[in-house]
Amino acid sequence: MTSELLAKAHQYETCYGAQIGEWERPMFHLTPRVGWMNDPNGFSFYKGEYHMFYQYHPYTLQWGPMHWGHAVSRDMLHWKYLPAAMAPDTKADHIGCFSGSAVETAEGKHLLMYTGVHRKEMDGGCQERQTQCLALGDGITYEKWKNNPVLTEDDLPEGFSPVDFRDPKLWRESDGSYACVVGNRTDDGSGAVLLFRSPDGLSWHFNSVLDRCRNEYGKMWECPDFFPLGEQYVIVVSPQEMQAKDLEFYGGDGTMFLVGRYDREKGKFVRDVVQAIDHGTDFYAPQTVLTPDGRRVMVGWLQNWGTSGFVPEGARWHGQLTLPRELTVRNGRICQNPIRELETMRGNRTAYESVTVGDHTVFPGISGRELDMTVTIHTDDEGLFSRFEMRAVGDEQWGVTIAYMPNSGILELRRVYAGNTQGGAQVRQCRVENRDDRLKLRVILDRFSVEVFVNDGEQAMTAAVDTPKATGAILFSSDGRTVIDVEKYELSN
Ligand code: FRU
Which helix (H) or strand (E) holds 429? Predict the structure, then answer.
């Protein structure tokens, strides 16, 4: 049965979503059908298609009572909108249907697990509570489970918070049982990832504290994910209130890969490596899916709470998801690269080899707003330059600058002239390595974003941009002489 609230959302999104022209949206990044989007949710493969749900408030361009928007795709690049899957319309989730995930059940149903937020009346007032809830569906319509919520504060061990208890990420075990990780905040004020198990996906119990941060990496740990990758196990988490550290982490809402070992018997994870997931200004709350051909693919919110307050003038949607990224392990660290499906969108190729960049250099044919470009900087002639810059999605006034400073080994992403009128973080840096006297930067541009992948995915830097769409120049400059190779493909649908 479709509730009144969900029917209202369907009516609204059909009417107002259809008014948004193709050119007002990115070419291959998913945006909300209309209104506001934050985290990706329920990223899964079901009945031959990828499903993506998202935190959704169709009615405004700000966060509001959370619905789940819904879209499907065969290649994770071309998305088709489906009607919103859930509205905050039950007792367990009347304040919002927060983030969660999806799997296919043994019976072939699509099972969504999400955080239902409700108000609990108590002596002397009321308090919000976060609980874990379920909905079952056929890939289009979803019915909330009659026994919601299925995990509440009563399932938590002592010292874990009933208020910060959210974002379940589900999977099926090889024996057919179900498991999920959920973010929590412990009584030391900082984050933890809790592991729960279920024989049938419907009745759940606490298993163990998979990992906790004891105030080492931020406070509340949001949106956990957990999976094997090669020989390792990986926790993905988005900590709030991070402290900045060594150009690896910035202050605020951050994201981390924890790479390590998993003792399944004890339900414990041991960390070996901790690394930032993305060093740009606009990335948060990533979630992964295992594709039918065995790839682990991650998508994040191409935005961050620290920057999401800026809504471009005239916009009718706000928030987008990143390009899906394939994860691999190299030397014990996680690398991320654009999904290989992107190559099917490649059109005209323009390439230059060993060309020299001086004061201000342009290369004929190297321009555009929707492109896949690899710039390889030669670093073997030391002392030839101390700053190399590439300014994209711009002209003399506008642009996003990617700068490399070989003496300090720092890569910088500056989106000072990218249209943001709200201030906040505009410049980010990270440390990069020369590999065989080369630094390789793969830059993916869509109409509203820049994503940079360093050395085949060792680091990523992501930024949302709002420069006028006619500005597609790419300007190169060096304070000395920099030798580069450039290979550019236009992208088209
Ligand atoms: C992360 C988050 C989640 C929560 C959702 C609410 O961005 O804060 O923890 O479920 O957004 O929209």
Answer: strand 427-431
Name, in order, each residue with C-beta under 8 angstroms of 24's C-beta and a sequence gap of 6 or more.
316, 317
Residue 19 CB coordination number (10 Å): 9
Question: CA 192 → CA 101, 152, 285, 318, 461, distances in Å?
Answer: 18, 16, 15, 30, 26
Residues 351, 328: Cα–Cα separation, whole Å:
28
Give the contacts of 97 (CB within 8 A, at least 6 positions apart).
Answer: 66, 67, 68, 86, 87, 88, 114, 115, 116, 133
Beta strands at 317-318 and 35-46: parallel, antiparallel or unpaired: parallel
Report the alpha-carbon distance of residue 244 to residue 163 in Å, rounded: 26
Cβ of 222 less than 6 Å from ligand 1: yes
Say whether 89 is catalytic: no
Q: What is the pLDDT of residues 443-492, one digit of tens each?
A: 999 999 999 999 999 999 999 999 888 889 999 999 999 999 999 999 99
For 231, the token pair is 């020989």
- Residue located nearest, by CA, to atom 9 of ligand 1: 222
**Total Cβ atoms within 10 A of residue 293:** 6
Check pocket membership of 55 for ligand 1, CB cut-off 6 A.
Answer: yes
| Separation between Cα atoms, residue 100 and residue 54, nearest integer Å | 9
pTM over 0.90: yes
